[in-house]
Amino acid sequence: MRPTRTRGSAPCRRSRTLTHPIRVALLLLGALLCLDRPAAAQTGVLEGRVIDATTRRPLSGAVVELTTGSFEASALTGPDGRFRATGLALGIWTLRASYLGYAPVVLTDLTVQSSRATFAEVEMRPTTLELEGITIAGDAFRVPDAAPVSAALLSAEEVRRTPGGQLDISRTLLSLPGVIGGVDNRNDLLVRGGGPGENAYILDGIRIPQINHFATQGAAGGALGLVNVDFIRETEFYTGGFPAQYGQALSSVLVIDSRPGNRDGVAGDFTLGASEAGLTLDGPLPGGGEGSWLFSVRRSYLQFLFEALGLPIRPNYWDAQTRVEFFPSERDRVVVMGIGAIDDFDIVAPTDGDVENEEIFDRILDNDQRSYTTGGTWERQLGFGVTRVALSTSWTDFRFRDVDADEVEVLRNRSIERRTPLRIEGDFRLSPTTELDVGVEFERVGLELDLLQVATPGAPFEEDVRTDATLGAWRSAAFAQTVMRAWDERVTFTAGLRAEEDGALDDGFALSPRLGARVNLTPSVALSAAAGLFHQSPALLSLAVEENGAPINRELRPIRVEQGILGLAWRPNPGLRLSAEGFWKGYSRYPVSRDDPRISLANLGDDYGFIGAEPLVPVGEGRAYGAEFFAQQKLTRSVYLLAAYTWSTSEFSGADGVLRPSAWDVRHALDLTAGYRPTARWEIGTRLRVLSGRPFTPFGQARSAEEFARTGRGVPDFDRIGEERVDAYARWDVRFERVFDFGGWNGRVFLDVQNVLNRENVIGFDYSEDPALIGNRRPVDGAGLLPFFGFSVEF
Fold first, then answer.
1. How many Cβ atoms are within 10 Å of 481's Cβ, its own excluded?
2. Is beta strand 199-203 parallel, antiparallel or unpaired with respect to 252-258?
3. C or N: which end of the chain has fewer Cβ atoms within 10 Å?
4. How far apart are CA 158 and CA 180, in angstroms?
């Protein structure tokens, strides 16, 4: 094996068409469908609990109405807020909950099956608008009061069914406005002109450093999703203007809540997906305790697919996830979670004489990783609110290595990152129209770093970077966010303040005020706005870099973003929402390469490897602005739709102050995702994604020739950053799914065909000295026609 010195390069090549797998998949699909001979009267169970959204108090006597097609059912909650509806027809149900003095809530996409009970948690908010004799319809689009703009809620079913989504939450989010993709071999979240390292991820109340396998150190993007979608109950995704409780993020926050385990007995799920096979088990706590557990383990088979495609790379991973929930008393709830991964990236020397494979072999970085996060949250109900204490620890081991054409080591990065945060928070209802969320955070961060980067002809620094150091520091924060409703709840106002201190920086203090408001112009039309400051510390890797035995980057500052958002939303009916938003983001203090002041880290991070391991200065600036239009039809009957269009601009400067297009400056993005369920057993989905061309920096011919001879890689001409663009990207995916049931166990079979038209989408160029190519450029394509057959069996 002879990997090279590069800090990362996308393992792509010209796409290869797969035709025989389509025929095989269709035959297997037809064979499995023939097995489905269900009994006539199979039914399922839908259970859950109804609680106050702020105080978490159970609501006894709430009315729960269930509908699907021509079937209806209802239930009342007990003293513990729980309900259970039995004898339900199998399929997708819609839930409507109502309670005196509270606004009705509608949940869609609740899948009832025979293998286990389906769980739904209904959070309700008080209202002063309920009048005697008047029925309020309820709304399927719940907008958090503390985030009146740029928030989306997705159910587990909406995540799972996305055509081309590969059962990956990050790829599902590409259907939302403001989220840019277009590189098929990565699932970076590029939100409103920001980079992949500007996002925060919260799983069951615990922050996790990344949600990807083969993550990019210093940027958090990666190749494939780490979170098992079988665990997901609901997700909240904020693309801007998020509340003060969320810090250390500039662009977005993804909050994932997992479902509880099956309370009726041990149940399981075996899934064969697009890139891995997985087993999930769950059940009640032993000994009759009030609680449940979940556990899953997954193993990739991408290495076999890449071998079949003739590629010299063999990505191979395992991951595991667990969750335990129990209730020590009527007022206490404890959730313990864990998630971890083992990522191995093997490179096999090509023997077929293929020039392109030989260049991939020379260019790709050896990239192995180990990671885990484990933690717990204790929640205590009070008479007027709830308190939470969350403690966790995260550990990530990055192992990068590179040698040149003479087998001389030119890059080595062995990094072990540790994070141990403690969070204490309280949500309180001060009056029927006023709520307050306050909290403090303390976090111990550390990094053990063994780093070597040789100053090759293409390096942005003039001397070798060598570091053998240990970094340790404390971070702390305090925040408060209030929500007030006035004028018969026509106006909702929210204000927040967050103060943070990073002990790893010489000047690490940051103050982040945030404001937001929503005005209901009519019962179905709302105008919203938000503004504020957001801060994020530089990556730990950058802060640990030394020069002559002393830290060199401690004078960096927390990166700052000023945000302003204005939006308008219209709900013609409870299941349909149309919205438009405009946004502005102004960046300052962005790290820039000290030795090559043209290079801002804002233009890096969308590739494999790591970024920021060099001397930096906090002088970069940037801006991102645009407009979004979004239409969403929930699956309240037989059709669902997500239609998003984003126009945006993203520009950043180096030390010279000249704004240039960022690496993710995609000006136009259109995503159309739709599905149809003709019966309870069939679903057909489709997604069309069209993007304008991504920026591309041409290669510097002289330096590229020198660098290629040593490492097999070219060197961008940084005097021409973003000067050219690749062609527009277009991809059409389709998905066919059939549910079958045998009474007591059930399953799904699906055929997911990506890039049905087999369009060659050029996403970039690699430097090449292949005489068959023009201008030393080898096009890097996205995925070609690629069918995936998969199934899930639940028992």
1. 24
2. parallel
3. N
4. 19
When the pLDDT of each residue in the chain is averaged and rounded to a whole number, the result is 90
What span, in angstroms and rounded, lies between the C-alpha atoms of 458 and 703?
6
What 3-state class would DSSP assign to 656?
coil
Q: How far apart are CA 774 and CA 20, in angstroms?
A: 33
One-character DSSP codes across 109-169: EEEE-SSS-EEEEEEE-B-S---TT-----BS-PPPTT--SSEEEEEHHHHHT-TT-TT-H
The rounded percent of the chain whose pLDDT value lies above 90 is 67
Contacts of 406 (CB under 8 A, 6+ apart): none
For the chain, what's the residue count? 795
What string of DSSP letters covers 329-362? ETTEEEEEEEEEEEEEEEE----S--HHHHHHHH
Judge contact between 298 and 275, C-beta under 8 A.
Answer: no
Residue 132 pLDDT > 70: no
- CA 224, 227, 230, 232 dihedral sign is negative
Count of alpha carbons within 13 Å of 2, Cβ hemisphere only? 16
Distance CA 756, CA 736 (A): 13
Tokens matching residue 67: 């509908």
Residue 120 forms beta bridges with which residues?
Answer: 48
Give which of 586, 570, 590 is closest to 578, Cα–Cα.
Answer: 570
- What is the pTM assigned to this prediction? 0.93
Q: Which residues contact 709 (CB under 8 A, 6 or more apart)?
A: 405
Among 488, 511, 492, 516, smallest CA distance to 500 is for: 511
